[in-house]
Amino acid sequence: MRVEFYDTTLRDGAQSEDIAFSLTDKLRITERLDDFGIHYIEGGWPGSNPKDLHYFKEVKNLVLKNAHIVAFSSTIKANTRPETDPVMKALLEAGTDCVAIVGKTWDLHVRDALKVSLETNLKMIADTIGFLKALGKTVFFDAEHFYDGYKHNNEYALSVLKAAGDSGADVIVLCDTNGGTMPFEIFDITQSVGKTARTRLGIHTHNDTELAVSNTLMAVKAGCTQVQGTINGYGERCGNANLCSIIPNIILKMGYTGIDREKIERLRELSLFVDEMANFIPDKHRPYVGASAFAHKGGIHVSAIRKNPETYEHIRPDLVGNSQRVLISDLSGEASIRYKAKEFDIDIDKDPDLAKEIIGRIKQMEMRGYQFEGAEGSLELLIKKKLGIHKSYFELIGFRIIVEKKEKSQPVTEATILLKVGNRVEHTAALGKGPVNALDNALRKALQTFYPDLKTMDLVDYKVRVLSTREGTGAPTRVLIESSDGKHTWGTVGVSENIIEASWRALVDSIDYKLLIEKEKK
To answer: Which range has the top average pLDDT, 49-58, 198-207, 493-502?
Structure first.
């Protein structure tokens, strides 16, 4: 069976708290969704705000290969004609061949929200769909609150579907709008509706009970051939059904067709791109596309996947554009360190005791508060130093940091640093927004004369974790730094009772790793 995928990230997803897509964001996301193979892209509600109407004008300038753009709207108001209704006027101004119309299916909403009779609601739906079909539009009818409506008054809920179908709707989309229906209910109700429906069915679910993906799959199993959802599950309240989980489940697991498997290999890339447009930090624990989706930490797990990845991976990571990762921690065994050494292109198999010694060193450091899961730059340096194949590029003689605060003025921070590079001593100072920033600036200033490649490197993230609350302000502190040069991104770590010392250690590893990358290039 072929399934159509309908993306509503630009409307439903934009209703998520903290998301505000610009017009440019929406157009760029549209291009990516089209390139990925999405069949329908719901661009917005042209009657609700000027930005959405502007989107429909601008999207016509894009050359789309796969997707149809859909404009969303409600039905006409009670006791109005479609030809004169302002909602229909705005919808038609969008100029799309496909439209989605939402109508009330639960009698509770008809009485308490619309404040009209049940018969009037049916007429509003029928008149709206009939008007649009007469204009040659493809019409998707979103049966809002269908499952709740069916459970409370199935006779009326089915009469709404009949009104939509008889008026010419191309697809009737069954909506679990409150997100509270159970998977077994979704399957039973959808299957029952499908036995008498003459119109194709679709599914639209919300994630208020963490069941949007499961409910979508049950609806497809029961006969729905159109699936609505959003990238990364963005949406109001707890979100919508996550297409980044639904698509691989339907295509790779359930065996349906709809999107080419080759395109699914770009799924992680698409997920990260939409995160970037939404200005969200990617959730590493997302199924399929998260950085941790195929990450292994336990020694037994790592030992097994080295022999056969199927032992602890439900699919090959590359099928969704992801990759296998091994995390090093105090739970790691020798298999883990051998895996990482191979990843770093380091041969430790010549000496059978090396892996054991390195694991011992890592476990000692983790007892003191180090963590290498997010600091693989520090891990690679540690292994290479242990093997004697790497030495630091500079030596600290000393540094001093002064923070001066005067009344009614911002604090001023200055770092002075004294370094030795080879036989030369470099003494310099720099200002910063705080002690760590000033120290970072001074360190770079001192080294860039010797190592110009450092100019391409930036510190992109800085995290501080107090490891114990019992010691108060004297507690051990772990600092994780993420750095990038535009091509590579790496993490480093430092631990100390003094936050400046911990930051210094992470900074030194960060610069040391960048210089190691440049050396290995040559």
So the answer is: 198-207
Domain ranges of the chain: 4-259, 359-386+451-522, 394-448
- pLDDT for res 302: 78
H or E stretch at 513? helix 499-521
- CATH number for the domain formed by residue range(s) 359-386+451-522: 3.30.160.340
Q: The tokens of 332 are what? A: 């790691």
- Maximum CA pair distance of the chain? 91
Q: What is the pLDDT of residues 276-290, one digit of tens each?
A: 889 888 898 999 999
CA distances from 39 to 3, 12, 259, 382 (A): 10, 17, 9, 49
Residues 6+ apart with CB under 8 A from 203: 173, 174, 186, 190, 215, 216, 219, 220, 224, 226, 227, 228, 241
Judge contact between 45 and 10, C-beta under 8 A.
no
Hey, do 359-386+451-522 and 394-448 end up sharing a CATH topology, with the first three levels equal? Answer: yes
Distance CA 84, CA 75 (A): 13
What pLDDT score was predicted for residue 95? Answer: 96
pLDDT of residue 332: 58
Instruction: Determine the Cα–Cα distance for residues 20 and 169; give it in Å rounded to an integer.
Output: 32
Type of residue at 54: H
Which CATH code of 3.20.20.70, 3.40.190.10, 3.10.150.10, 1.10.230.10 fits the domain covering 4-259?
3.20.20.70
CATH number for the domain whose boundaries are 394-448: 3.30.160
Residue 99 has pLDDT above 80, yes or no: yes
The string of DSSP letters for 354-393 reads: HHHHHHHHHHHHHHTT---TT-HHHHHHHHHHHTT----S
- The confidence band for 300, taking pLDDT boundaries of 50, 70 and 90, is confident
Q: What is the pTM of this model?
A: 0.73
Helix (H) or strand (E) holding 193: helix 183-196
CA 17 – CA 239 distance, rounded (Å): 9
- Residues 305-343 have pLDDT tens digits of 888 989 999 999 999 999 888 776 655 566 777 777 787
Residue with tokens 């390139």: 35
Angle at 450 between CA 444 and CA 451, to 5 degrees: 65
Highest mean pLDDT among 183-187, 425-429, 461-465, 474-478 belongs to 183-187
